Amino acid sequence: MRFGVNHTPSVGWFHSWLDFSPSDTARDLEQIASLGADHVRIFPLWPVVQPNRTMIRQRALDDVATVVDIAGSFGLDVNVDALQGHLSSFDFVPAWLDTWHRRNLFTDPDVVASTVAYVEALARTVADRPNLLGITIGNEVNQFAHAPHPAPFGVTAEQGHAWAATMVAAARRGLGTDGGRGLEARRGSAPLVTVAQYDAAWYDDAQPFGPEHAADHGDATVTHSWVFNGAAQLHGALGPGSVRHGEYLLQLAAAWNRDPHRPNWLQEVGAPTNVVPPADAASFTEQTIRHVLGAQDVLGVTWWCSHDVARSLADFPELEYDLGLFTNDGRRKPAGEAFAALARSAPASPAAPPATGIVLDDVGPDGTPRPGVRADCAPGGRFAAGWLALAEAAPDGRGPQVLLRSRLHEDVLRAARGITTIEHVPDGLDGTVLAVAHPATGA
Q1: pLDDT of 352-409, one tens digit each?
Q2: Could you write out the DSSP letters of every residue in 242-303?
Q3: Cβ(382)–Cβ(434) under 8 Å?
Q4: Distance in angstroms (rounded) separating the CA atoms of residues 130 and 77
Q5: Can you give the residue ranges of every domain in the chain?
Q6: What string of H, E and C letters represents the secondary structure of 188-202?
Q7: Cα 302 to the chain's mean position, in Å?
Q8: For residues 251 and 402, is the Cβ–Cβ distance under 8 A?
Q9: From residue 237, how far is each of 240, 249, 281, 384, 390 by CA, in Å?
Q10: What is the reported pTM?
Q11: Is domain 2-345 in CATH 3.20.20.80, yes or no?
């Protein structure tokens, strides 16, 4: 189980890449290391690195490599995100992809070729660093694929698969690795490549990028858990459906893994103050992580985020100014204390799989795909309510694994996942869906 933090620079936020300061970065990373974290996730801004479709700035790539080296000096591994993409309610896409030059991010051949060149160059720049945890293709890039984004790029699920496969291949070429490295990456012996999506992939039936895109591409299945998606509105800040949301999302996403031992990474989770009062942030942090520790094959948890956004920066949603484990001037907050206590006391070995599995009816009686499956899984949906009821009633306090009905016949898979008891969604659940389909502004 790895414990990490998403690095939000305390000086200049992510705009700091425009005027990179090794000393400011070192101060932030030393504070992160003081929490007992073993890794950070960093976010070079795409337009800064590739301001023109045929121009990749070596100075910007060198700055990324410098951050990886600084992190290593404090004992931190680094995951590098490529396509920013979307960060804390702001979009960062190059000018050559917008307005007068607008082309489809996912399907335009010239755009895809240029993006491939960038991803490969970024991966190649850091490939030889011994503390490289891996490359994530982009931060919640699926938010560009559909509403509520104000100007989405149209893409089908099939085109999304082609795009994700192309980007993963580019990263692997840059790293000089092949696929199937998830378990090695968890043990620290190989970098991994991942694809990150916000939770519409599991909760919004209209989102072109879905569970299969998370489970079929890269070396681990990545989830981002934000309880302002309806969970906290329904259950309260510290209700079971809120503090168990990260655990639930890990189990839900893992249901689509074809490899029963594929690592599952809670790559983003935080305590958003629009639904979690600051006085509850430490308890929310502690309870969320403890429940995540009970899930199987968890690569790690990476908290959002390291430092609060400075109040001198304008136009952020209010919650963004108070998401850090540290204040903007570097004081450790109660949530930071809770994170540090867990990072230092967590068991060294991953949890054994929960023995109970709950069936998700992804297909109907005739075996055809069932409409509305993702809505059922959203907070307040019938399946989400059924999972939570079983989790709360479990003698060991652990939520059940999720088993797709379409795979019930795969006895070998079920045995490999350690599922010995199969449950179904209890009757009498009304399934009032409260999920809010929007990008995670904390990301």
Answers
A1: 899 999 999 999 999 999 999 999 999 999 999 999 999 999 999 999 999 999 999 9
A2: HHTHHHHHHHHHHTT-SSTT--EEEEEE---TTTS-GGGHHHHHHHHHHHHHTSBSEEEEEE
A3: no
A4: 8
A5: 2-345, 356-423
A6: CCCCEEECCCCCHHH
A7: 8
A8: yes
A9: 9, 17, 9, 17, 20
A10: 0.95
A11: yes
